[in-house]
Amino acid sequence: MNRSDRFIDACRLLKTDCTPVWFMRQAGRYMAEYRALRERHGLMKMFLTPEIAAEVTLQPLKAFALDAAIIFSDILIPLQRMGIDLEYAQGEGPVIHNPVRTRADVDALRVPDPEEDLGFALESIRMVAGELNGRLPLIGFAGAPFTLASYMIEGGGSRSYIQAKELMYGEPETWDELMRKVSDMVASYLVAQFEAGARVVQLFDSWVGCLSPSDYRAYVLPHSARVFRRLKKAGIPSIHFGTGTGDLLTLMREAGGDVIGADWRTPLGEAWKRISPGAGIQGNLDPVTLMAPRPLLEARAKEILDQAAGRPGHIFNLGHGILPPTPVDAVKALADFVHAYRPRKGGDRLPCPS
Q1: d(CA 256, CA 78)
Q2: 126 a catalytic residue
Q3: Catalytic annotation, pick one of 5, 12, 17, 74
Q4: Would you call 74 a catalytic residue per the annotation?
Q5: 51 close to 130: Cβ distance less than 8 angstroms
Q6: Beta-carbon neighbour count of residue 243 at 10 Å?
Q7: DSSP H helical ranges for the chain
Q8: Rounded to 5 degrees, what are φ and ψ at 238?
Q9: Other CB atoms within 10 Å distance of the CB of residue 146
């Protein structure tokens, strides 16, 4: 099997020669190559400069046997083009200086044109796709409507999401208009990434685990579904990922996505039951396990692979992104282990074609 086909076939629920693997945040602070670039450039410059973003995207592919690349960017970058004053503050993470709190704030937001307003990101994708030249697929991505809207309302990171939920509960019409604008932006941006050379796109709903199932159905599902309907109409394979979403997996599947990402809090076998039939699954090792002793790391990976049982549609990944203290050799060892292991004859480890 062509290595480029392994990941795409898994997204289509087709049989693969071994389990494909890639890691969220596989390009980042745990790699010395990335840190060397970061010492010379500010984070925003790295996101906005296609040559730098392309270089960072390709770094892990040179170090590990991965089955897909994911473009180096950030889910919040498109918000700038909607009129959001965004800063990546040193030691504080993203900060929004003009949070969206009123209907007037929502009305002032514009829906950007991907080519005109986000051309730098699309050029990064074109550069990486050209460099890969079909050897591996490239994943494009965007933040999901709920997570992006919540960032805009909260003004930055949050643990309680009070401001977002107050607007959601207290002014549902304003909430719907905000989510409509964001979902229109996200859908157009993801389609543009596909047209620029991404083979699959992933929607990150990193904050949606703060909601109950009833709130998800009422306030989020219609807007996420709007995005996935657009992707399906365009024939774009998609992954739908969230954290803390064990109780929401069935609803996320209803919203859309060819593959549903599961975090580590729900066993993979149970998560797959909740999204069946007709969807693949991505996940779902606890990222901290990469810092555990090697025997434990392999044992936990084996548990996940055994629950998948070689069933078509499993993409091995972490339950969230690689953490900065992660040892590089652990990432390499895990990717190699996943490729070498298939549940057969009691769990024999078989070589996987490179």
Answers
A1: 22
A2: no
A3: 74
A4: yes
A5: no
A6: 21
A7: 3-11, 32-40, 43-48, 50-63, 77-80, 103-108, 114-117, 119-132, 145-154, 162-170, 172-196, 213-219, 221-233, 249-255, 268-275, 294-308, 328-340
A8: -140, 150
A9: 28
Cα 14–chain centre separation: 21
Element holding 69 (H helix, E strand): strand 69-70
* Token code pair at residue 3: 């290595």
Residues 153-210: tens digit of each pLDDT: 999 999 899 999 999 999 999 999 999 999 999 999 999 999 999 999 999 999 999 9
Yes or no: say if 178 and 100 are a contact pair by the CB < 8 Å rule: yes
pLDDT in tens, 275-332: 999 999 999 999 999 999 999 999 999 999 999 999 999 999 999 999 999 999 999 9
- Rounded CA-CA distance 215/208 in Å is 10
**Which one of the listed residues 29, 103, 180, 300 is annotated catalytic?**
29
Cis peptide before 317 (omega within 30 of 0): no
Query: Cα–Cα distance between 260 and 225 in angstroms, integer?
Result: 13
Q: Which of 3, 25, 226, 230 is catalytic?
A: 25
Per the CB < 8 A criterion, the answer to whether 140 and 150 are in contact is no
Quick check: is 25 catalytic? yes
SS3 state of residue 140? strand
pTM: 0.95
- The CA distance from 53 to 80, in Å, is 18
Q: Is 38 a catalytic residue?
A: yes
Q: Cβ neighbours of residue 39 under 8 Å, at least 6 residues apart?
A: none
**Of 83, 93, 31, 39, which is closest to residue 59 (Cα–Cα)?**
31
Segment holding 280, helix H or strand E: strand 280-282
**Integer angstrom CA distances of residue 47 from 43, 51, 306:** 6, 10, 38
